[in-house]
User: Fold this.
Amino acid sequence: MSTLADRVTLPTAADPADGTSSDVVPSQIPADSTDGVGLIESNFDVEVKLGDLQNDTESPLYSVTSFEQLGLPKEIHDGLLAMNYKKPSKIQEKALPLMLANPPQNMIAQSQSGTGKTGAFVLTVLSRIDLKKPTQPQALVLAPSRELARQIQSVIQSIGQFCTDLIVEAAIPGNVSRETGVKASAVVGTPGTVMDLIRRRQFDVSQLKLLVIDEADNMLDQQGLGDQCVRVKSMLPKDIQILLFSATFPEKVMTYAERFAPNAHQMKLRQQELTVKGISQMYMDCPDENKKYDVLCKLYGLMTIGSSVIFVRTRDSANEIQRRMEADGHKVSALHGAFEGANRDALLDDFRSGRSKVLITTNVLARGIDVSSVSMVINYDIPMKGPGDREPDNETYLHRIGRTGRFGRVGVSISFVYDRKSFDALSQIANHYGIDLIQLSPDDWDVTEKKVKEVIKSSRAKPEYAPSAIKN
Assistant:
């Protein structure tokens, strides 16, 4: 069968002469090099640009190698130990001293998935609030989805489990009582709901000290979310500390972020460090669009070795694929923005617990969500952006595949292509990040299955396996 790959060449990982697949399992971080819960102990140097107010010889950049050096309250340190955080990750070593310093200063931090960004800003949240005022909002975290807001709320509660009187509230649709309003020292919410609560005088922002925006590139770039974030900021105290975090910061968004968080310290990775280590990135050259579904069903057995997320372009596609797969006897669930909040929470809880193992979703789950059992991500539709989906969405691709291979574990991403547009889009993404993609063939299922299983069933990659090449 002639496929598009016969006519167009994507960057692919070369097979060794002996026919083995040494490129299938990327090299991994050894178990003893992670900080307790498996945050990636990256070898890259964190690039730091000091804010204007600190850019002098009297205020040198410094870092820490242990949490003890930060002088954290005992309750917070005990929470870290209970969570098995033994030492800071690279991003935490550099970021925490700057974020916790007084007087507080803004920060823009960019680092790949699984490097401890959430832990860094959660420690700052816990350190900034006065626990003697448990119902007075003092720190606000904004996230793009209710799922991510709930997850961040859980992390704050876990690390702060020994902080007496700590109250963390989720400012998401349907969760805040209209009678009492927000009564918590730390608040995690979505921009629209937070804005409405402030307008209705159900959220007292007068004593807020800290504003954190997670997935900031998406939050500030998208017209709706960006407008809401600006309005929320305009309602807050003028001297509030602002922390912007994301795995990606395109140049145009960084320019805007610098205005949103003036005089901010900046931390970022070089472009070639952005792809997620530990994920074997593959693509399936499907004969045509109709055959994509048949290939997806063939992959079902591999999807349920661990857990899997299937990303599609629209809600209708998610519903239709769920309907067809269930009719064909496969157990799957779908989650997207059309579901009511309680249903979304329940669906995600089922997926986290393993009661549901295959989840079909839109980009609502592309960012930040951490489910440790996810071993495979499928890009059923290549992420696109712009009017009429005319250009590939590099950043969304990176965030999607980052749902697997979390915290130094192995994972597989498989992107489906079937025509010139999808093929060219994936090729542009691969070239942008310098990825050598591994080709899978729908005509040789034994080889395809072997390649994928080798990755999924490896708890840690073996030294003899080479990583997917990262081009300079």
Notes: The first strand starts at residue 47 and ends at 49.
